[in-house]
Amino acid sequence: MSHDFPSYRGHMEYRCLGCGTRRPGDSLLYTCPDCGGVFLLENTDFAALKEHDGQYWRDLFDARLSTRTTALRGVFTYYDLLAPIFDEEDIVYLGEAHTPVVDASPALQARVGIPFAYKNDGQNPSASFKDRGMACAFSCLKWLCRSNSWDEVLTVCASTGDTSAAAALYAAYVGSPLKSVVLLPHGKVTPQQLAQPLGSGATVLELPGVFDDCMKVVEILAENYRVALLNSKNAWRILGQESFAYETAQWYGWDVSNLCLFVPVGNAGNITAIMNGFLKMLDLGIITSLPRIFGVQSEHADPVYRYYSAPAETRVWEPVTVRPSVAQAAMIGNPVSFPRVRELAERFIQTGGERAFQVVQVTEQQIMDAMIQANRHGHIVCTQGGETLAGLMNARALGLVGEGERAVLDSTAHQLKFSGFQNMYFSNTFPPEYGVRPDPSLANMPELVLPESEREGKSVAEFAKLGARAVADRLKLAGK
Ligand SMILES: *Cc1c(COP(=O)(O)O)cnc(C)c1O
Ligand SMILES: [Zn+2]
């Protein structure tokens, strides 16, 4: 074991958010066998961490940034706060986490009116934040396989695209006894997202319908067959996603007092993990106040927005039927983590005040315009990253975010995964259901400056002269 691997071990338990039952963490559980509720994983020994003060933890995590122990380089930089039960040999590290926080370009900041940055979670190994959760979930699976001597485990997930890409990648890396199966809604993931699990060698099964339909199928499988479910209901995944909060706080010198985080909300696993992460840090004195968290939803898939936009006394939880959304990875009408949202939003507001947790709504048009603008200013955001920028702009327009505050936008996946939507924008080929009208001044298409026939029958030197003249004419270059 490396000399800097922690010796502290906690004790993990699942706590059901429906009925409050607790169950040991060393089993594969997704929903409560008593009431069907979702779980949060808790370290029942968390209080032992309070033997140290906030400064101790800040120093420790700052020191870990330079470790050569790979098990402590990714999400487990924060081992003690996540799942302090694994041994070093259990931990799977594929280079995930510690994604860069990139200040928005000066011109883009000027348009928006306050300082802000993107945290580029698209720079994770499978190009989305889902790797944070998978690093934790697969470490857990390795730990369980080792402790129970399991000889075969089939990992299954339904996906809007990125979960399956991440699950297939980590399963392929770990290898035997794990095997990956992914269930996708036919025609509802991008070609890049489909290529990823295929390339990792997963069994890819498609079903007609949307994500919510696939999720129901996977739930029946998990209840009746021996499979390891890797959806947002897997509390180990959500746990790993807390690392986004730890990294953000660390990047800002553990002072998040004037930060506003914008997070796209689909199944709501990510936003709840982030809130839980900040609450844990506050509890240990690692930070002394909470940041503000803004969930962002498209008006085509906005159940969480609708819930919170009603006055507190009249709120009723109702799933919605989704309409096609460019923020396809968040196109979810019945988020499985909604009970987690309710619990964590309440705790966040109790501690940080009414303004500590809010949800804003954006249009499909705003998402696309914002994504295109961000990328034209040197960013690499996907449609969900466009959604968070649109969310910030709407929050500004509504007076929810003022001068003196600083925003951090979660860019949840890489631009390249969603380039099909960029193509539709540039070529004005959006199906009408999306309701997106491209701004023609932003369209960008390749231009062929010479016909194919001009290459034929010429030497390289002859063609180079011809080509250079055609380019110089097109650009109206001045001679020198
Ligand atoms: C999964 C995903 C989301 C939605 O996250 P949830 O945890 O389901 O709310 C947003 N953006 C991208 C790129 C995703 O892959
Ligand atoms: Zn229960």
Question: How are the SSEs ordered, and which strands pair?
Answer:
Elements: E1 12-16, E2 22-24, E3 39-43, H1 54-64, E4 101-103, H2 106-112, E5 116-120, H3 130-148, E6 153-158, H4 162-174, E7 178-185, H5 191-199, E8 203-207, H6 211-224, E9 228-229, H7 235-240, H8 243-251, E10 259-264, H9 269-283, E11 292-298, H10 303-309, H11 338-352, E12 357-362, H12 364-376, H13 383-397, E13 406-411, H14 419-427, H15 460-475
Parallel strand pairs: 5-13, 6-7, 6-9, 7-8, 10-11, 10-13, 11-12
Antiparallel strand pairs: 1-2, 1-3, 4-5
Helix pairs in contact: 3-4, 4-5, 8-9, 9-11, 12-13
The chain binds pyridoxal-5'-phosphate and zinc ion.
Can you offer a commentary on this structure?
By secondary structure, this protein is α/β, with parallel strands linked by helices. The protein contains 15 helices and 13 strands. The chain has helices at residues 54-64, 106-112, 130-148, 162-174, 191-199, 211-224, 235-240, 243-251, 269-283, 303-309, 338-352, 364-376, 383-397, 419-427, 460-475, and strands spanning 12-16, 22-24, 39-43, 101-103, 116-120, 153-158, 178-185, 203-207, 228-229, 259-264, 292-298, 357-362, 406-411. The strands form three sheets. A six-stranded mixed β-sheet has the order 4-5-13-10-11-12, sandwiched between helices. Strands 8-7-6-9 form a four-stranded parallel β-sheet. The mean pLDDT is 95. It binds pyridoxal-5'-phosphate and zinc ion. Zinc ion is lined by residues 16, 18-19, 21, 32, 34-35, 37.
